[in-house]
Each structure stands twice: as C-alpha cells, then as structure tokens.
Amino acid sequence: MKLAKLPQSENKQPPSSRAAHTSRGKYFKPLREEAKRQIRRLIIEEGYTPTEAMYELNIPMRTFQRYLNEAFLPERQVLARRLTDDEVLNQLAILESRLTKSRRDIINAANDPNVDPKRLAAMVAAYNLSEEIAAAIFKIHSDAAPGVLMERH
C-alpha cells in the first residue's frame, strides 16, 4: 500500500537539532534510535527508573514501553532462557548494566593516581550502597515474577 506524500513545512530549527528530531505537529518527536539511546543512558548511566526516564523524555507510555523493550532486547534474549516475564527481564538487564558500569567506574578511579584515597573510599561506599539498593529493587521484581507467571497459566 502506497501512502500519499504530504508537503513538508519549513523547519525553523537549526540543522543540528533537526538531525535528532522529526517534525510531527506542534512538537518534535525524537527519532526512535536516539530515544532508545537516551532511555538506556538515563536508566543505566543516570540511574533513573523507567517511569522517571519516560517522564524526562516526555514519551507516551505505550511508545516508551516499546522503546524500552527494544533498547534492552539483546540483554533480554540472553536472559530469556531462564526467565520469561518481560518486566523482570528488563529489570535484570538494567541491574546488570548498572553493576557493570559501576565496576568499570570504580576500577578506573582505583587506577587513577590523582584520586585521593579518602575520596576513592567514599566513592566505593556510595557505589556499594547504590548497587545494594538496585539489587533490592530487582529482588522485589523477581519475587513478583512467579505470581505473574502463575496468573498467566
């Protein structure tokens, strides 16, 4: 099925911002791949919850859920052999990515001769607490998964 070509309105944004957005009505919708990169960045690097990331990016819920699923698809495919609930898989992928990033950050800081030992110790303690909280959040999701799976069958 061929769709009719609609005339494009003149875009008044600078070229750099046009590259990341498409004009759709009165707002500029992020392109899919850029939105997925931003979702991963906010969740993994900035520590946002998926709901916070959705509001930060101002993406509708259904679109955000689709992008979230696509953004973490590779991680979910690896984990799918053992777990089947999409939300638990998303949370596990997020937790794994956060832990990997934290580990890399701590190793980089430990190898940096300019980092003060007291600052390094405080940073390690902060990362430790942060990851314990992330693990607790995942435990909440994973404990709920069996009930969700049982309700499906």
Bin the strand percentage.
Answer: 5-15%
Unreliable segments of 5+ consecutive residues: 1-19
Taking all residues together, what is the mean pLDDT?
A: 76
Strand order of the largest sheet: 1-2
Task: Set out the fold topology.
Layout: H1 15-18, E1 21-24, E2 27-30, H2 32-45, H3 50-57, H4 61-71, H5 73-79, H6 86-111, H7 117-152
Antiparallel strand pairs: 1-2
Helix pairs in contact: 2-3, 2-4, 2-6, 5-6, 6-7
Please supply descriptive tags for the structure shown above.
single chain, 153 residues, mainly alpha, 2 domains, two-stranded antiparallel sheet, 7 helices, disordered N terminus
Model description:
With 153 residues, the protein is mainly alpha-helical. The chain has two domains: 28-71; 84-153. 69% of the residues lie in helices and 5% in strands. The protein is built from seven helices and two strands. It has helices spanning 15-18, 32-45, 50-57, 61-71, 73-79, 86-111, 117-152, and strands spanning 21-24, 27-30. A two-stranded antiparallel ribbon has the order 1-2. α2 (32-45) packs across α3 (50-57) and α6 (86-111) packs antiparallel against α7. The longest helix is centred in the C-terminal third of the chain and has 36 residues, at 117-152. It is globular. The model is unreliable at 1-19 (pLDDT under 50).
Task: Briefly characterize the structure.
The protein is mainly alpha-helical.
